[in-house]
Write a structure and sequence with these properties.
The complex is a heterodimer of chains A (350) and B (264). Chain A has 350 residues and is an all-alpha fold. Chain A is built from 15 helices and four strands. The longest helix of chain A has 28 residues. Chain B is α/β, with parallel strands linked by helices and 264 residues long. Chain B has two domains: 174 residues, P-loop containing nucleotide triphosphate hydrolases (Rossmann fold, 3-Layer(aba) Sandwich), CATH 3.40.50; 77 residues, no CATH class. In chain B, the strands form two sheets. A six-stranded mixed β-sheet of chain B has the order 6-7-8-3-9-10, sandwiched between helices. In chain B, helix 3 packs parallel to helix 6. The radius of gyration of chain B is 19 Å and the shape is globular. Classes of the chains: A mainly alpha (350), B alpha/beta (264). At the A-B interface, helix 8, helix 9, helix 10 and helix 11 of A face helix 2, helix 3, helix 4 and helix 5 of B.
């Protein structure tokens, strides 16, 4: 079908700067995206709902990766920022009657504003100290979710109306799937492009060496805040979609556990990598489900297995994360690169 | 300096850290288009002086004027925007990025596409990226680093990293470039290459160079004028010949009048 070039034969910079370099890769990526759109027609409702969760996780992971992976500012407020997005979107729809399609970006803007407020300490704080400051954001916002009952319904939570186009409501797993997957694809494209243009590169520069970034004319505070804003905007969108998917939101979902879950996602997938965010989101969503599936199979053979593994579930999960940190600190994206290089060069070692 | 305009005026700089006086009343002028060297023993305040000019440190007293504009209290990023660029003694590249991306960071102040259009990429952003890629490729060509343009900087050898850092400083398209020990840790051949690049930067591109360097052979060969610092004070200034004959400088830094040392 096609012959792989054994050298660089690009003739224009435009060709050289393409994201999908070869015809082979373009074919498979476009094919995969097309496949995503026919997927619900052939998959079971359970698999579709699992894919919905993955799609939302991909958007959320891309969001947190912008601020943590690419700009190097650890954020432990992810769970709360998801909540800000979800609750503000619900508020705009329920109280002001704004349609979902407008309420979602508005919720993103609200989350971006909140993210920027909690990003202000990044002017002075770095590394672990900033992590503690964002942890404060998590707890302050959780407190507000419980006590601003007019907006969030307190511990009872609020109904989240389904998105609608005319009379058609996206209220099933299959229909909301198309909304989620479209936003996920757009977010992936946006993030990829962001990091091959001015502001994205500046984020990475701030991460790698903030002193010389400043010497290169990058205003540190502006870019640290901007990173929080863009990240939170995307996380707010993910939160809104989570609401549309579950149709009912309570503060319980937006806890520190969710923040750590997302952090684990980008560590396992790959910090500062768009593909890594996707791998991590898939991995972290599938593993708990595979564990449950494994136990139910095992329970047929050994009746006590279910209880035992269920009680060890968190532990097994933690073990997987620790093993990743030891053996694959650069994440799945890096592993994938190594595998690709291995097969490309086989049978030679380099 | 035969009627050339003053580009950088440094007046009476005092810089101290707690009780340590790093610079005490240092002042000098740098003329447009010259190669100006700052030399002195270790701890004399050479790098502190560069840091004052590039904006890393703000002196407690004194004035720094660049092309008629006072920049003493401006942040580093603003100084980059008006045409001051530098390299570091210890390499300060963005290690996780490719050589190309490092150089494109150098173009940061000249790029206009923000995060909204940047995320869409097609159209104006792509045109701008290609345009600046051409500028950067010109520098890559000039410094002969074509073969590594897509390598991650952290994986490169020391000498090459030094060259990439120079390339990044040039990508800013500066009017004044500050070089902090560009030959440190280099072998003879790499040093000779670097000297050639510095002369070309100065003569072909017309960029003023301020050089801090310990290799006296290089400094005496290529500098138009030299200022000598010792313990935070200026002890001599002038052409290489004048400086070599200055008894204070000889006592403080050059040691005995050893021609083999000076002439390499």
């Amino acid at each position: 079908m096609s012959v792989n070039h054994c050298g660089d034969f690009k003739q224009t910079y435009k060709d050289d700067m393409r994201v999908l370099q070869t015809r082979f890769i373009r074919f498979w990526v476009y094919g995969f995206v097309a496949f995503l759109y026919v997927f619900p027609l052939i998959a079971s409702t359970y698999v579709v709902s699992l894919t919905n969760m993955i799609g939302i996780a991909v958007i959320g992971a891309l969001g947190i990766n912008i601020v943590t992976g690419f700009t190097g500012q650890i954020s432990l407020g992810q769970g709360a920022f998801l909540g800000v997005g979800a609750f503000s979107c619900a508020f705009f729809m329920n109280e002001w009657g704004i349609p979902f399609w407008l309420a979602m970006p508005m919720a993103g803007l609200v989350t971006a504003a909140v993210g920027m407020i909690f990003g202000i300490p990044s002017l002075r704080l770095k590394g672990l100290y900033l992590a503690i400051a964002t942890l404060a954001a998590q707890f302050i916002l959780e407190y507000l979710f419980l006590h601003l009952e007019g907006i969030t319904g307190g511990s009872n939570g609020v109904m989240f109306p389904s998105p609608q186009v005319g009379d058609f409501a996206f209220d099933t797993d299959q229909s909301i799937y198309y909304v989620i997957i479209t936003v996920a694809v757009l977010t992936t494209i946006y993030t990829t492009n962001l990091f091959r243009s001015k502001d994205g590169r500046a984020f990475v520069a701030v991460r790698d060496h903030y002193l010389s970034a400043e010497i290169m004319g990058i205003h540190l505070f502006k870019y640290r805040l901007l990173s929080f804003a863009i990240s939170s905007f995307i996380v707010g969108i993910a939160g809104s979609l989570w609401g549309a998917y579950t149709q009912y939101i309570t503060p319980e979902h937006f806890t520190i556990a969710e923040s750590i879950n997302y952090l684990a996602m980008i560590i396992i997938g790959g910090m500062g990598s768009v593909l890594g965010s996707i791998y991590g989101a898939i991995f972290m969503t599938l593993v708990p489900n595979l564990l449950s599936y494994g136990t139910s199979v095992l329970a047929n053979v050994w009746a006590g297995a279910g209880d035992l593994i269920m009680s060890l579930k968190e532990g097994i999960f933690g073990l997987i994360v620790v093993l990743f940190l030891i053996f694959e600190p650069d994440g799945l994206a890096h592993r994938w690169k190594l595998i690709k290089a291995y097969w490309k060069l086989y049978p030679f070692s380099y | 300096m035969d009627g050339r305009p003053v580009q950088l005026q440094v007046d009476d700089i005092h810089l101290s850290f707690g009780g340590v006086n790093a610079l005490m009343g240092v002042g000098f002028q740098v003329y447009k288009g010259e190669i100006f060297s700052i030399i002195g023993p270790n701890g004399a305040g050479k790098t502190s002086m560069l840091n004052c000019i590039s904006g890393r440190y703000h002196p407690q007293r004194g004035r720094i004027v660049f092309e008629g504009r006072e920049i003493t209290n401006q942040p580093p990023a603003t100084r980059a925007e008006i045409g001051i660029s530098r390299t570091f003694q210890n390499i300060a590249l963005f290690k996780g990025m490719t050589v190309l991306d490092n150089l494109l960071i150098g173009r940061h102040i000249h790029l206009k596409t923000g995060f909204l259009k940047g995320g869409i990429y097609l159209g104006p952003c792509q045109r701008e990226e290609i345009e600046h890629r051409e500028f950067v490729e010109d520098i890559i060509d000039f410094l002969e680093i074509e073969h590594i343009r897509k390598k991650i900087v952290g994986t490169l050898a020391y000498g090459l990293q030094k060259r990439v850092e120079l390339a990044r400083a040039l990508a800013l398209d500066p009017k004044l470039i500050l070089l902090d020990e560009p030959m440190a840790g280099m072998n003879l051949e790499e040093t000779e290459d670097m000297v050639r690049y510095i002369l070309d930067i100065n003569q072909e591109r017309g960029i003023t160079v301020i050089l801090v360097e310990h290799d006296m052979g290089v400094v005496m060969d290529i500098s138009d004028r030299i200022v000598v610092l010792d313990f935070g004070q200026k002890i001599g200034e002038g052409t290489p010949d004048e400086v070599q004959k200055n008894p204070d400088v000889v006592r403080a830094y050059l040691g005995a009048e050893d021609e083999t040392f000076l002439g390499r």
